[in-house]
Amino acid sequence: MSHASVTRTISTPEPVDAANTLAFMLVRVGGRRLALDARMVEEVAVKGAVTRVPTAARHVLGVASLRGSLVPVVSLEQMLGVKGPARSDAATALPRLVVVRADEYEIALVVDEICGIVEERPAEFTAEASGADRPCFLREEFAWQGNLVCVLDVPLLIATAAGRSTGGD
Predict the structure, then answer these.
(1) Is 66 exposed, middle or buried (0-12, 13-18, 19+ CB in 10 A)?
(2) The CATH number of the domain where 43 resides is what?
(3) Which domain holds residue 138?
(4) Please, which of 9, 60, 74, 149 could form a disulfide with 33 given CB 3.0 to 4.6 Å?
(5) How far apart are alpha carbons 152 and 160 in whole angstroms?
């Protein structure tokens, strides 16, 4: 199976109807830029104490208490197989937790940086990128500020993190 990717450049947007617009939260994990459907983001928090859970999958770092509930904390670095950069100044490079929800399931994703919010029309996204070596929860790619950004399928990411997915990694 060949690795085909769709690449486009985000330009200055024209005024668009809000009903036809998608908003994406852009994050950085290691050297990789990723986009999350902003409607599925519940909150952003500074990564605090995480309690390890015995027998949890390698990518599940443990659970954290957020809003009075225990939420699984997932390493996107582990799920994507990327290494994070060495942190020279912990005060300016504190990892963040981005809590995402799909249906009744909620997980906290460890990210290195919140890069911003981008709004795009759904019609501008074309075919999904795929490949045998690509995790099933990665979708199309686009260029943003000179970086390649890959869209995460949040429901499929949550299913994969929980071990409920049948495809990909």
Answers:
(1) middle
(2) 2.40.50.180
(3) 18-161
(4) 149
(5) 12
Please give the full DSSP string across the chain, using - where no structure is assigned.
Answer: ---B----B--PPPP--GGG-EEEEEEEETTEEEEEEGGGEEEEEE----B--TT--TTEEEEEEETTEEEEEEEHHHHHT-PPPPPS-TTT---EEEEEEETTEEEEEEESEEEEEEEE-GGG--SPPB-TTS-TTEEEEEEETTEEEEEE-HHHHHHHHTT---S--
> Over the stretch 38-76, which tens digit does the pLDDT of each residue have?
999 999 988 888 889 898 888 999 999 888 889 999 999
Structure-token match 């990789």, residue found: 32
Strand 60-66, strand 69-75: pairing? antiparallel
- State the Cα–Cα distance between residues 166 and 147, nearest whole angstrom: 30
Residue pLDDT, tens place only, 90-137: 444 567 899 999 988 999 999 999 999 988 654 344 445 555 577 889
Structure tokens at 112: 């290195």
User: pTM to 2 decimals?
Assistant: 0.75
